[in-house]
Amino acid sequence: MENNGPSAGSYNNFRVLYLITQMVGAAIVIMVGSWIGAHLGGLAWTSRPSVQFNWHPLLMTMGMIFLYGNSILIYRGFRYARKKPLKITHAVIHGLAFIFTVIALVAAFDSHNLASPPRPNMYTLHSWVGMAAVVIFSLQYVFGFVSYLFPGVRDTLRAAYMPIHVFFGVLGFILAIAASLLGLLEKAIFSMPNYAQLPAQAVLMNTIGLLMVVYGSLVVFLVTEPMYKRKPLPEDVMLLTHSASSQ
What we know:
single chain; about 250 residues; about 0% strand
């Protein structure tokens, strides 16, 4: 239960792991940007469809990996902030990740449809797992917004929905990590005939994949470990009490 709260020692451990998580996540984004700049020809839009695709891994990494992970950690990472601002921040980060995801999907579909000849869409395991992650993420955003930011929803319904919200939030994040790993492997096999010789690009891509596993594992551990659960602040309790008494 939240009332028990974490001990001082466990919170110190959390802060160390949280900092490591942020460093790993930032390293992933930087390395993906470096990979795109050094090996994939940079960024472009519809005038160069093959290069336009590069927005897809960059924005998906920023949105569905880094921002998504930070969004689901927001309550534990800023445990001494008030609940309402955390809810709004959680929703804003999710919204930003959603915008990045939409642009990334447009870039991927454009790069296929505008190629000469056009390339098929949605036939690989990467695309299926990735779309499942996007659908779960999008539904989470809609249902979470209605449940926790829309006025008039009863606290009992919010409490009943919370375990479902947490489960599918973590599930969507895990699927996003899995889709990213499949996408890296797919890109490596399709674009590097000498992948087996481990050229510099292959080493970089494999390293990115390993860091994604580390980042995903840290996020899931931090968000599911009971000892790191956020302890309600006095104003949170007062808000709930006032809300209950006013209904």
